[in-house]
């Protein structure tokens, strides 16, 4: 890993009122150009020696797509431990739409997942995460991918129960994003990527984004028809079947084709990790 922190000097200075978007993502092209200049002479550190934080620091919104894989819809409907007789979990994404998660739930893989309610079942869900690159309002699906800055692996961590999705999925550390941002030009087709998740070495989820009910473009079209998407907003695109519970001490490993692999440690909510920013 190369330390190109100095590339952030190209970001503009801002004063109050602060912008509603992420400055890094809004000026990603300029930052990339500066990185290319600095990279050759930058200091190199082993990846194991750094704490990977979220590649998006200040998203205005975390948008999430529920039940966006039919296989997950089927498993939720067949298992009371998943649906808890919550009628919101037995509908399709066409009728459910998308929902919002609190931005305070966002962490990087190096910060880990802190179980806040050990008395309740908690599941990590592997998802392709799409990061919006420029302001998008009422965007058509035909043009939607032009508004994408890049992609990352997302973990949509979920407490099972009868409450609204937004509450159960907005706990601190329950939105993991990483291990880095892969720019949109490096992903030819976000609708054809293998993804998987393992817990303590046992594979629990394995599917492809080709099985999403609504693809990335359709999700951008849907979300932007209700509210304006800003640079840095993140869309979690849904998870396939195979969701399984975690407890403190578990190690979650998520992989998405052409993006990479991130390992996330599970702990109790006491004693939050305090690693250095990268």
How would you sum up this structure, described in words?
The chain has helices spanning 23-26, 28-38, 70-78, 80-83, 93-96, 165-168, 216-224, and strands at 62-64, 99-101, 106-107, 113-115, 122-123, 126-132, 148-156, 158-159, 175-183, 194-199, 202-208, 234-236, 251-256, 260-268. It is α+β, with helices and mostly antiparallel strands. It has a single domain (52-268), classed as Alpha-Beta Complex (Fumarylacetoacetate hydrolase, domain 2), CATH 3.90.850. The strands form 3 sheets. It has a 7-stranded mixed β-sheet. The protein starts with 22 loop residues before the first helix and ends in a 10-residue tail after the last strand. The relative contact order is 0.22.
